[in-house]
UniProtKB/TrEMBL annotation:
Keywords: Membrane, Repeat, Signal, Transmembrane, Transmembrane helix, Transport
Protein species of origin: Triticum turgidum subsp. durum (Durum wheat)
Entry protein name: Aquaporin
Bilayer-spanning residue ranges: 31-54, 75-97, 117-138, 145-165, 185-205
Domain of life, source organism: Eukaryota
Family the UniProt entry places it in: Belongs to the MIP/aquaporin (TC 1.A.8) family.
Location of this chain's protein in the cell: Membrane
Signal sequence interval, chain numbering: 1-21
Cellular component, GO, one term: membrane
Residue stretches in coiled coil: none
């Protein structure tokens, strides 16, 4: 129960400050887009560095479950908590800042008439890169602060790159919260399907590369015989190719 509460609080903080920054840019033009990305990066780094391990993202939770790092039976509760925390964060933003109906701080393709193909591809590729970083640092022996900074910097950088086209979500919870609160579901499927597919691909890539390294080390007579094969969120010591 404590871990679930931590997940909810962490997701709330991430979505709240992300939406506040986006709304400040939308309503008052007080922040530039790079500054919004910086706020998101610092928020993620702070939440992970201060509060410790949290998924913050249904696509991350689903990927961890698919690769047997996270129990499937807990998946519905975690996803419901993440989306619920996102909705609560957006309701809090609206109560504090009182945006107009046209001040939508969700994620939509930009411009809306540009179509779905490019935003989908960008969200998918960015999500894959993000999962590679997450799965790499999560299996390292780095401190919580270093892990938080690495993931936060990745989120901010990827958002800066793809944000002008797709909004830079990479997180179904970040997109679903504003969509539910405002009742606007334009192209919402992009921000659900692309992050999930991208993170699964990123995790598969990471697993394949790590196992390939272990096999090469073993065949070359190095340390492969006792290699440490790192899979998403977990490590297995043993023969190459061990799952």
């Amino acid at each position: 129960m404590m871990k679930l509460l931590l997940e909810g609080v962490a997701t709330f903080l991430m979505v709240f400050w992300s939406c506040v920054a986006a709304l400040m840019q939308e309503m008052h033009h007080g922040l530039t887009f790079p500054t919004v990305c910086l706020v998101v990066a610092l928020t993620v780094a702070f939440v992970l560095g201060w509060m410790g391990p949290a998924h913050l993202n249904p696509a991350v939770t689903l990927t961890f479950a698919a690769f047997r790092y996270f129990p499937w039976r807990k998946l519905p509760l975690y996803v419901a908590t993440q989306i619920g925390a996102s909705v609560l964060a957006c309701l809090s933003v609206n109560a504090i800042m009182r945006p107009h109906d046209d001040n939508f701080y969700g994620t939509v393709p930009r411009p809306p008439e540009a179509g779905a193909r490019l935003p989908f591809l960008l969200e998918l590729l960015a999500s894959a890169v993000l999962m590679i970083v997450i799965s790499t640092v999560a299996t390292s022996n780095q401190s919580k602060a270093v892990v938080g900074i690495a993931i936060g910097a990745t989120v901010g950088t990827l958002g800066l790159v793809i944000g002008p086209v797709s909004g830079g979500s990479m997180n179904p919870a970040r997109s679903l919260g504003p969509a539910i609160v405002f009742g606007r579901y334009t192209s919402i499927w992009i921000y659900v399907v692309a992050p999930v597919a991208g993170m699964l691909l990123g995790a598969l890539f990471n697993k394949t590369v790590r196992q390939s390294d272990a096999i090469v080390g073993f065949l070359c007579g190095g340390r492969g015989a006792s290699s440490r094969v790192v899979v998403v969120g977990r490590s297995v010591t043993g023969a190459p190719g061990t799952n």
